[in-house]
Write a sequence for this structure.
């Protein structure tokens, strides 16, 4: 059998996904034995012209990590789509915009003034310096995810994708047995199914952040008041964060039955909050617990803000009215 | 009210619990009480059935306001569904506020089966409030972002 041809590309990414590929340890040797890596900007030094020179569909599969932030990301995603048979959204950013999707809560101008300060320092699309023209790709008004730009065949969730998920993808790749397109390389059930903590379905009487208290290592984190995203999040990572005493932050995205991960989590938490009794005389006490939330978007939409139902920030005059 | 709102007719989705608020709507009907035609009533079995995702989807599809009608505290046919939805609405309003949407676009009201008049007055005043707020900003989203 001819060697498979694979590519790995990063768009608006931190580089963690590229490192995560090596978490499979010696299995990477099987991958290299079974496949040639044609494209991997993080490890090799390819030029755009190399990519353009490949025939359409010449690459078998490309693992694309990172979100779509600039016009360059869009163009490369479209170019890679024509050169590869299968395209994988690899990691939270490619899947749903990821943590950097929270940037959509700020306008482009707000981001530029925070990063570059005075408007004179903002990057210009076109500059001419010493007789040389320089063109920068546009920083798009809103960050988006890979599937918004091109068709995506597989999704490998996680920030970064956990070892066993990457391993499952590589095994399928090496065996030449890729599943039906549309497959998400993770569990179809939620994280709680994989979590070993004991659930008592206690009422949440106090909202805690991880640094505010040491969680009990045996009991459900939600029972203890820590905002664990497990109920609304796809499993597949074997609940490594709760096992390390950290609440799930929801990096794997919602399960197949959920469209808006934050909304699902909001439902869950609203049902759990309470004093232990339901009644009109409890409403004030419930309101006091609910008032402890100060960043719902950052908590429940940490990885899905860019692909949530509202996608970005609006500017209504009385947004703080009650 | 600015000029652009002059011809604005709000579209309001009202999720009404079948045991109280929907029966209240029926009573308003048989009592010949009139209220604005801007309300699109949706009968649900319990206000506790109204998922946050349903409310957000209504806003996404262009609703200018979403009203949830449930039984008064203590009267829920399923004991505590209305308390659950109340907590949900509190959190949802905060989330809307965080993303820059006026939280008054989502409203929870207790309307019992005997309160035809309250149904009429709530629908009238909420329609007027939404008329004042103007069209939803969600509908005016700029799509797509890429060239």
């Amino acid at each position: 059998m001819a060697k498979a041809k694979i590519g790995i590309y990063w768009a608006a990414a931190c580089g963690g996904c590229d490192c995560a590929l090596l978490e499979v340890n010696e299995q990477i040797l099987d991958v290299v034995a079974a496949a040639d890596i044609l494209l991997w900007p993080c490890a090799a030094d390819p030029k755009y012209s190399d990519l353009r020179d490949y025939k359409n569909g010449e690459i078998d599969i490309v693992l694309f990590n990172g979100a779509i932030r600039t016009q360059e990301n869009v163009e490369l995603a479209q170019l890679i789509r024509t050169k590869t048979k299968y395209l994988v959204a690899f990691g939270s950013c490619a899947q749903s915009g990821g943590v950097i999707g929270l940037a959509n809560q700020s306008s482009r101008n707000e981001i530029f003034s925070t990063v570059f300060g005075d408007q004179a320092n903002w990057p210009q699309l076109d500059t001419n310096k010493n007789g040389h023209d320089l063109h920068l790709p546009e920083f798009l008004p809103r960050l988006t995810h890979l599937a918004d730009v091109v068709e995506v065949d597989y999704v490998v969730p996680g920030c970064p994708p956990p070892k066993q998920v990457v391993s499952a993808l590589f095994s399928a790749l090496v065996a030449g047995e890729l599943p039906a397109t549309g497959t998400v390389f993770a569990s179809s059930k939620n994280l709680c199914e994989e979590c070993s903590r004991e659930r008592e379905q206690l009422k949440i009487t106090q909202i805690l952040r991880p640094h505010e208290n040491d969680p009990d290592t045996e009991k459900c984190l939600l029972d203890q008041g820590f905002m664990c995203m497990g109920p609304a999040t796809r499993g597949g990572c074997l609940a490594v964060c709760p096992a390390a005493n950290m609440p799930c932050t929801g990096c794997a995205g919602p399960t197949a039955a959920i469209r808006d991960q934050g909304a699902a989590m909001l439902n869950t938490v609203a049902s759990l909050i309470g004093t232990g009794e339901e009644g009109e005389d409890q409403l004030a006490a419930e309101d006091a617990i609910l008032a402890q939330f100060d960043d719902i978007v950052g908590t429940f939409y940490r990885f899905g803000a860019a692909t949530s139902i509202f996608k970005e920030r609006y500017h209504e005059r009385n947004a703080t009215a009650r | 009210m600015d000029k652009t709102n002059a011809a604005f007719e709000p579209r309001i989705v009202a999720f009404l619990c079948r045991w109280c608020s929907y029966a209240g709507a029926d009573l308003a009907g048989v009592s010949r009480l009139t209220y604005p035609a801007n309300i699109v009533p949706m009968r649900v079995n319990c206000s506790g059935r109204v998922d946050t995702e349903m409310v957000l989807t209504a806003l996404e599809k262009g609703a200018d306001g979403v009203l949830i009608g449930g039984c008064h505290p203590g009267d829920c046919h399923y004991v505590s569904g209305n308390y659950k939805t109340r907590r949900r609405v509190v959190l949802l309003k905060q989330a809307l506020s965080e993303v820059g949407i006026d939280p008054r676009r989502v409203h929870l009201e207790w309307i019992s089966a005997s309160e035809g008049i309250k149904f009429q007055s709530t629908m009238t005043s909420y329609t007027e409030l939404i008329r004042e707020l103007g069209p939803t900003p969600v509908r005016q989203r700029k799509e797509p972002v890429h060239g």
Summary: DSSP finds four helices and four strands in chain B. The beta strands of chain B are 12-17, 39-44, 65-70, 106-110. Residues 62 and 139 of chain B are 5 Å apart (CA to CA).
